[in-house]
């Protein structure tokens, strides 16, 4: 089974997430964050992420910041010219893995509304067998949403890989006993991913596919595949 993060892994949302964080800060009259402030917390559920970024703010202010962040994204998506591109090779790799019989999961810090929007926009309803997000339980790096993916499809941890761009993804995978693959093109650096426990670093989707092809025979048995 292959479980994917979304922002920074499949979709290049670096600019839009930073823009939303800055606009939301201005909306509630607090100092705007730097890009490094924002990139450090991407992948964690939004309220927890903003609280992590701004520990000086009380819960009421964090709630307001969260609301304004969400409103910023609603405005972005209401603009017909708004676009967040897929990383080169993402679509082809997802489709190839699915065609080869991989079980496909999603573990993202997005809301359920965001997951639904993403799946519908990219036509991924036939690609992902399971999708779990920040609305489903504890935030990354807690292993909950990854464990939910495994349990939903009856997959053992040693049969799965978690692919993500953030240290939170790597720590979540290690906590769940799942192989952690870090991608170098997202929010966190290679050094940060390795320090967080990445088992492997890949630098593009071609390299990821080669690595997964080598892992596939032990990732999913024919007996288990036949059940789905």
Automatic annotation (TrEMBL):
One of its GO terms (biological process) is DNA repair. One of its GO terms (molecular function) is phosphoglycolate phosphatase activity. GO terms for cellular component: cytosol. Pfam families: HAD_2 (PF13419). This is Haloacid dehalogenase. It comes from Asticcacaulis benevestitus DSM 16100 = ATCC BAA-896.
């Amino acid at each position: 089974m292959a479980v994917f993060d979304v922002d920074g892994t499949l979709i290049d949302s670096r600019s839009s997430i930073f823009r939303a964080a800055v606009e939301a800060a201005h909306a509630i009259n607090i100092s705007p964050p730097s890009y490094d402030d924002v990139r450090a917390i991407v992948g964690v559920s939004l309220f927890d992420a903003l609280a992590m970024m701004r520990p000086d703010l009380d819960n009421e202010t964090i709630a307001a910041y969260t609301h304004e962040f969400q409103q910023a994204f609603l405005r972005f998506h209401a603009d017909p010219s708004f676009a967040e591109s897929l990383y080169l090779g993402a679509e082809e790799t997802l489709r190839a893995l699915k065609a080869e019989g991989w079980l496909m999961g999603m573990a993202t810090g997005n809301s359920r509304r965001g997951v639904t929007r993403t799946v519908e926009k990219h036509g991924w309803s036939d690609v992902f067998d399971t999708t779990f997000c920040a609305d489903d339980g504890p935030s990354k790096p807690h292993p909950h949403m990854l464990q939910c993916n495994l349990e939903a499809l009856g997959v053992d941890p040693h049969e799965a890989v978690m692919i993500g761009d953030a240290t939170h993804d790597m720590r979540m995978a290690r906590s769940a006993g799942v192989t952690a693959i870090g991608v170098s093109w997202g929010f966190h650096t290679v050094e940060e991913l390795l320090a967080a426990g990445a088992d492997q670093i890949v630098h593009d989707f071609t390299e990821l596919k080669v690595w997964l092809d080598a892992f596939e025979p032990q990732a999913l048995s024919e007996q288990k595949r036949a059940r789905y």
